[in-house]
Inverse folding.
């Protein structure tokens, strides 16, 4: 019988921020209900000709990924550092990433990313709320582990 574990609890994501840190950073203390998510990507465009022929073409698109962290996550200082660096240099900081999902025996390599949106401070509620950041990637490469 095959393993059917689908936990995300043992997923590992590392972020490479070469212009700010010498080594990849392992992200930790994720949000409770959602840790990471990628938007669906529209990969093709289609047009119906006036004589009823459907034509399709591949269009490269960026991949938007949202990462959500607990308000107590030590990973937040890295995102705050990226925000501060982008504000002070007025340039995009280039990112790389790798997501390993042992439950499905898959690894995803994210290339040429940039932090597009981010929570600049935690929202206060009954307790401090999770913070979310969106990275836009040029490409994602899946592989087995």
């Amino acid at each position: 019988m095959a393993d059917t574990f689908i936990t995300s609890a043992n997923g590992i994501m590392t972020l490479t921020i070469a212009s700010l840190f010498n080594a990849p950073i392992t992200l930790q203390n994720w949000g409770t209900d959602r840790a990471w998510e990628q938007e669906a990507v529209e990969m093709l465009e289609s047009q119906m000709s006036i004589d009823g022929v459907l034509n399709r073409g591949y269009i490269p698109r960026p991949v938007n990924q949202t990462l959500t962290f607990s308000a107590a996550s030590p990973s937040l200082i890295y995102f705050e550092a990226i925000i501060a660096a982008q504000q002070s240099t007025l340039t995009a900081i280039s990112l790389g990433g790798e997501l390993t999902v042992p439950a499905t025996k898959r690894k995803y390599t994210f290339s040429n990313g940039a932090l597009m949106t981010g929570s600049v401070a935690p929202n206060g509620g009954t307790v401090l709320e999770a913070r979310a950041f969106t990275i836009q990637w040029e490409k994602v490469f899946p592989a087995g582990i």
